[in-house]
TrEMBL record:
The keyword Coiled coil belongs to this UniProt entry's keyword annotation: yes
One matching Pfam family: KH_1
Alphabetical UniProt keywords: Coiled coil, Membrane, Repeat, RNA-binding, Transmembrane, Transmembrane helix
Protein name as annotated: K Homology domain-containing protein
GO molecular function: RNA binding
Protein's UniProt keywords contain Kinase: no
């Protein structure tokens, strides 16, 4: 546990009055009245404005405890007025303890118990009116009185749990050196004090934040609270309160440093606050304080509490004064000049004029600049702002071409960081390009270049040279953004070759933008780049075709979730994922996720695939086959054989820690089980004979050939062991552990070196009939004669050495403390062994019984064993007390409470404040074993946690008792309506009514139980029965809603001629309108080819242009519509919730058909270039939409060519053409 340093202190009263916001900066004392003199301050000076540093936060002081009738008994001071020491105290409420059988003890019995345990005399008197009992105690020593009093209080007072929020920095003081302070509190008061790890600390630094309101920026001043830890005290009420007072006193008897922040200082006031830093330091009057400024318009004051409070009040008063006295003036400046008023320029303006300037954000369309200052300074500030705004030359460089080309050029220069390149090459110049948001909205994109005119001109020349090379060198192709990653992974090498072969660079958009376009650029910087537009277009087209082909290859993307039990996942992945890599392939274009990674919170028994359909299908096929093979292998490994060997050979067959048998298992992949059970016939036979060799039964399971080989090896080893000799040595038991060594390493070395088996007696050995049990001081060496002799000699030499250096200390500890002494994985006990150099043994026979004492034996030098005992007993003192309780829960609810894999019970324990470690959870709640017919559930653990677990179990059982299962018949074809898209309807129903809905085929359908109304649906098709579980009223309400979801609606058929199909759809607008009516459409036939051509029927010839002085050069061709339309019709099935919606949909479709019939001709208007298309379309298509409405035609502006297609009647075509050409003329006139 780690601890920091921080204390609590009481607050000081705030300063009265507010100082002048503009005092003389050089004054030796804090000024009270305003002065006229001002001093320029270097805001870049590190001495005036150092960088922010971290400070130690301070926690709020804890509440004081009160001793009285409501909070517990008042313990009066001890008075020694005679040789016998006496004391008295009064209790307002008595909680009598209970006996072992659960009966309450009388007050007299409690007093007798205390008097018998301590040499003390106790008398009690009761006041019935006040309901108080006064106890008088006498003893020979004050110590005996104090012990007896505390013990009596612990028996008669209710046990409470109190919490003290202690700053992290104070935890060290509470615990004390090596836990001395905490131990003193526990020993003196007999209470349990728990200090959680530092990871559980919480910070209250933002919990008390306040705001002055949304209208103005808030100036917020608060203590920067230090993270705190909840120190819990559990024990009898008066003793717990006294312990709380002791801990509170430790916390409060410190003088901490504090940190306060002045937040959200208005941006126009911040420069004035910065300039007055020296004034604020003078307000500290020489006290310890640090003032720092951070980027969030926040001043941080750290230091002594009194000084910090005083200085913060001065800063607050200054801010309020600035709000009152500062004047403002606004002026409008072109947006490009705002760049000259940002950053360092604002500091220069303040130093020259004592005025601050606020410039709107670059994304803000406002051109208004605001100047703040004193009334006499604002005019000068305004002049300085104008001077700065005109201090440098600004060139606006428009990106050429229509807006689509401009955006392509902008995207390229952004991706290659070209502005940074220009800035580095031309010092003194600053290049600013439009932001992404601006580029998406603007119709013209400009690059702002700022600096000296000669430098700016050089930048413009270089920029123009690059853009000249880029004309005709860019191209965008549409590719679904979902395919981008697969294309790049699968074709990484080909993408690199595009630049080497075709000099074309491919830029995929960044994934978060989700843009379905890819930019191709003919590299202008390449030494091999061709200046020919034809050559550029040729290479761009080749790369575009190749990319589209790649996109087509991965266009058929498939996602599949394959149900596979989690137990097979590891085998399918293989060591280091080698099997999975073989399935995915070398190009790694297939994405595979196992279990929880698949994103399904309901199960981990799945594998998720995503990739090209063929790759997914191939991988799924392989996985399925591998699972089937694994299952068949499991079946094939079920063969077993059984045979017997002499029991005396079992230890040698198994080996040290199972080494021999484990080796056999790994080599042959078999399972070997030993059993000491003897058949009844053998038991009867043993009674008749005086001496019968004990047998052990072996069972070997696996593949038949492997089982036979394992049996052969074991019998061969048994035959070899039959010829061995045995020697018994007399070695005192106190030396056994040292001779065995940690984890048996010394014995293993002896056995490996001499080929023998060394057996030491176990402390709790089973007495097997027919075989003499080893005595505590006997050690057996078994093996070849030579090996036994050599092992005996070395063992006796080691014994002589141990007798000289080995000392033994045996003591007991409570069984509940064993887990804490051992630690996770034995970490704690091993740490004690390493630190003390002592050998420590724990008797294993009683470890499971936490109510019994356990013997611990320490061996080593005297210093080592004493140190080990001290360390272990220190851990024991920190282990909380435990209690046990039994509750009764009907067995039918056990499975529901425990949950799958015990997860439900684990979550319940954690919710009640219990441990999350499964090892620590073991034993807290014990249900009857499977097969035991019992309703008893046993609880054991800390009283507070145990009480919460009991309440939670009772609430859970109460809820289960009220639960019913109701069945409802709903046709299987309509189950989709209940589920809804993505399961939305089903989730809404379950959350709204608090029920569980199980549809046929779902995993929990068979486990939910039989419905209470099974007779009502016994004739229904099982596939149509839906089960709803929950309270009766909730089930009925949910069923009513479900029936509403599947109620029959209205349907109708409409025939749409294919020749009018595209015109009726209106590019999908009609279907969107029908969906808004609540009508769904199913089409029987889709049109295979467009109803009208996309190119003029005759070649474009501008020599035959429209002859008029006011009409621009253009080509106009008209052709009848529907000449090449398909024959036949498409049948549309309309499904609506009601007849009214259906009638509206039919009417809307009929109107669309009539409008399509009126569009008898197609006009092709081709212009020389696309330069006027953006203005013709208008913002978000507003202008072209207006033309469509005015002329009653469909107008489509070409994306890839210069042709505008107009569909309508002949007269409407002429009107639309004239309107478009007039706008073209107006657009070009405006440009000139």
């Amino acid at each position: 546990m780690a601890h920091a340093a921080a204390d609590h202190n009481k607050r000081l009263d705030p300063l009265e009055g507010a100082p002048d916001p503009f005092p003389v900066l050089g004054a030796p004392e804090v000024p009270v009245k305003a002065r006229d003199g001002r001093e320029a301050l270097d805001v870049d000076s590190h001495s005036h404005f150092p960088s922010l540093v971290s400070s130690t936060p301070v926690a709020q002081p804890p509440p004081k405890s009160a001793w009285g009738a409501d909070s517990g008994p008042r313990i009066k001071a001890n008075v020694r007025s005679q040789p016998m020491v006496s004391d008295s105290f009064t209790l307002s409420a008595i909680a009598l303890p209970t006996t072992k059988d659960g009966k309450p003890m009388s007050l007299g019995d409690v007093m007798k118990q205390v008097m018998s345990k301590f040499k003390v005399k106790i008398e009690a008197s009761a006041n019935q009116k006040a309901r108080q009992t006064t106890f008088h105690m006498k003893a020979e020593t004050e110590k005996e009185v104090e012990k007896a009093k505390r013990h009596l209080l612990s028996l008669l007072s209710p046990v409470v749990t109190l919490t003290v929020l202690a700053p992290v920095s104070m935890i060290g003081s509470i615990i004390g050196s090596k836990g001395a302070t905490l131990k003193q509190i526990r020993d003196q008061l007999g209470v349990k004090v728990d200090v959680p790890p530092k990871e559980t600390s919480t910070s209250n630094g933002t919990s008390n934040e306040t705001s002055s309101g949304p209208a103005t920026p808030s100036v917020e001043v608060e203590d920067e609270e230090e993270p705190t830890l909840p120190v819990t005290i559990t024990g009898p009420q008066p003793l717990a309160l006294e312990a709380r007072d002791m801990i509170t006193s430790i916390i409060s008897n410190r003088s901490p440093r504090i940190t306060r922040r002045v937040k959200d200082i208005p941006s126009h006031i911040l420069p004035f606050i910065i300039a007055l830093r020296s004034h604020f330091l003078q307000a500290a009057q020489g006290g310890d304080i640090q003032l720092t400024l951070n980027a969030e318009r926040e001043v941080v004051a750290n230091g002594d509490r009194e000084v910090v409070v005083r200085v913060v009040e001065v800063i607050k008063a200054t801010i309020q004064s600035c709000k009152t006295v500062l004047n403002l003036m606004k002026l409008s400046l072109p947006k490009r000049q705002h760049r000259l008023l940002d950053g360092k320029a604002q500091e220069d303006i303040f130093m020259k004029s004592k005025c601050s300037v606020v410039v709107p954000d670059i994304e803000d369309p406002s051109e208004e600049v605001t100047v703040y200052g004193m009334p006499d300074d604002v005019q000068a500030g305004l002049a300085i702002v104008m001077e700065m705004a005109n201090s440098q030359y600004i060139h606006v460089f428009p990106l050429p071409g229509p807006i689509s080309l401009s955006r392509q050029l902008l995207a390229y220069i952004t991706r290659i960081n070209y502005p940074e390149t220009l800035n580095a090459k031309h010092p003194g110049a600053s290049v600013f390009i439009p932001s992404t948001a601006t580029a998406a909205q603007a119709s013209v994109l400009n690059v702002d270049i700022i600096g000296e005119k000669s430098v700016v001109d050089a930048v413009v020349r270089q920029m123009s040279e690059l853009l000249g090379k880029l004309i005709g060198a860019t191209k965008e192709i549409p590719i679904d953004w979902l395919s981008h990653e697969l294309i790049q992974v699968k074709n990484a090498q080909k993408l690199e070759q595009f630049h080497e072969v075709d000099n074309v660079q491919v830029y995929f958009p960044l994934e978060p933008t989700q843009q379905s376009s890819v930019l191709l650029v003919y590299d202008p910087f390449s030494p091999h780049a061709s200046p020919s537009p034809v050559e550029k277009e040729k290479h761009l087209d080749e790369v575009a075709q190749a990319l589209l082909k790649m996109a087509k290859e991965v266009a058929d993307i498939k996602t599949e979730v394959l149900p596979v039990e989690k137990r097979w996942h590891k085998a399918l992945m293989g060591m280091d994922g080698n099997i999975l890599h073989s399935i995915v392939g070398e190009d790694q274009a297939l994405l595979v996720k196992f279990g929880a990674e698949a994103g399904d919170p309901s199960t981990e028994d799945v594998i998720w695939f995503r990739g090209i359909r063929s790759d997914v299908d191939n991988a799924v096929k392989k996985i399925r086959q591998m699972v089937e093979d694994a299952k068949e292998d499991a079946i094939a490994s079920s063969y077993f054989t059984e045979f017997e060997i002499d029991k005396e050979f079992v230890g040698r067959i198994v080996g040290v820690q199972g080494a021999n048998i484990n080796k056999l298992r790994e080599q042959l992949n078999v399972r070997v089980d030993f059993s000491d059970e003897v058949e009844e016939k053998e038991k009867e036979f043993s009674k008749k004979k005086k001496s019968v060799t004990q047998k052990a039964k072996l069972k070997i399971t696996g593949r038949k050939e492997n089982v036979d080989e394992a049996k052969k090896r074991i019998l061969a080893q048994v035959e070899k062991l039959a010829d061995e000799t045995t020697e018994i040595l007399k070695i005192p038991g106190q030396y056994h552990a040292s001779l065995i060594g940690q984890s048996g390493k010394y014995v293993v070395r002896l056995e490996d070196r001499y080929g023998v088996k060394v057996t030491f007696p176990r402390q709790f050995g089973d007495n097997v009939e027919g075989k003499r049990e080893l005595k505590p001081d006997e050690v057996v060496i078994r093996g070849g004669k030579k090996g036994v002799a050599q092992a005996k000699l070395e063992l006796l030499e080691a014994l002589d050495f141990e007798k000289e250096v080995n000392n033994t200390l045996k003591f007991t500890v409570p069984g509940r403390a064993i887990a804490h002494i051992l630690g996770k994985g034995g970490a704690t006990i091993n740490e004690i062994k390493d630190e003390t150099d002592a050998q420590i043994d724990i008797e294993r026979g009683t470890i499971e019984d936490k109510s019994a004492d356990v013997y611990i034996t320490a061996r080593g030098t005297k210093a080592a064993i004493n140190a080990a005992k001290t360390a272990i007993l220190a851990i024991v003192e920190q282990v909380p007390e435990e209690t046990s309780e039994t509750i009764y829960v009907e067995q039918k609810y056990h499975r529901s409470i425990i949950g799958p894999g015990g997860q439900g019970l684990k979550d319940l324990i954690v919710r009640c404040g219990g441990p999350s470690d499964p090892k620590l959870q073991a034993g807290l709640v014990r249900f009857p074993r499977q097969g035991d017919i019992s309703d008893e559930v046993r609880l054991r653990g800390e009283p507070g946690v145990l009480s919460r677990i009991k309440d939670e179990l009772e609430n859970k059982v109460s809820a289960l008792r009220d639960q019913v299962v109701v069945a409802v018949e709903i046709p299987a074809a309509q189950h989709r309506n209940i589920i809804g898209r993505g399961g939305q309807h089903l989730h809404d129903l379950q959350n709204r009514y608090g029920v569980y809905i199980q549809l046929p085929g779902s995993r929990g359908y068979g486990q939910v139980g039989e419905p209470s109304n099974a007779t009502e649906v016994e004739t229904a098709d099982p596939g149509d029965i839906v089960k709803v579980s929950g309270s009766q009223s909730a089930c009925e309400a949910a069923i009513s809603d479900m029936k509403g979801l599947v109620a029959d609606g209205a349907t109708a058929m409409v025939s749409i001629p294919l020749m009018y199909h595209d015109a009726v759809l209106q590019q999908g607008a009609l279907l969107r309108t029908l969906r808004s009516f609540g009508v769904q459409v199913e089409q029987s036939v889709q049109q295979n080819r467009p109803t009208f051509p996309t190119q003029p029927p005759q070649p474009v010839n501008f020599s035959t242009r429209i002859n008029s002085e006011d009409v621009p050069e253009a080509d106009w061709q008209v052709t009848p519509n529907h000449q090449h339309a398909e024959e036949g019709s498409s049948e549309w099935t309309l499904k609506a919730k009601d007849a009214t919606s259906l009638e509206r949909a039919q009417s809307e479709i009929q109107v669309s058909i009539e409008q399509a019939k009126d569009k008898t001709h197609i006009g092709f208007l081709t212009l020389p270039d696309r330069s006027v298309f953006p203005r013709l379309v208008g913002t978000k298509g507003s202008n072209i939409a207006r033309l469509r409405n005015e002329t009653g035609t469909d107008i489509t502006v070409g994306r890839e060519n210069n042709t505008i297609i107009i569909v309508g009647s002949e007269s409407a075509l002429e009107a639309a053409k004239e309107a478009i050409l007039s706008q073209v003329v107006a657009s070009r006139a405006g440009r000139r």
